[in-house]
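Most newcomers find our protein records easier to grasp once they have seen one. To make this concrete, we reproduce a full record directly below:

===
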Amino acid sequence: MKRRRTGTSLYEMLIALGILVIALDLSAQMFHSLIRTGADSYKSQNQTVRIEAALAKLRRDVWSAAEVSVSDSHSARLSAGGGLIAAWTIKADGLERTGADGKTERWPGVGNHWALAREGASLTISDESSKEAAAVRLPSQVLLAGAAR
């Protein structure tokens, strides 16, 4: 009478181990991708917050400006009542605002590819790196009121 083996063979163990290695490799790749996506999302959110902060400040400055002068596509001077409100400059490392008090604020990494232009009673910001022709217009209430008269 022959005895039957009840264990697993070396061949079966190697196949199971191979399947386990493949499953673990796929899991590690998915985990790495998940971590990278989370980090990219965090960076994008921070960049969005910085852009919104800079635009809010610029929007307030333009809104109260009686004069908007753009000397080139990377600098704008905003004034009201004969005095400077702020000078805005787009530099290679980001956006910079110098107030009437001489205090400088910087937003690193914001606006590197922006271009400024004066269009009527508005300051227009366009993104030179964008494939679409999108622009943001920031109107001046003082200039709009003067144009309505």
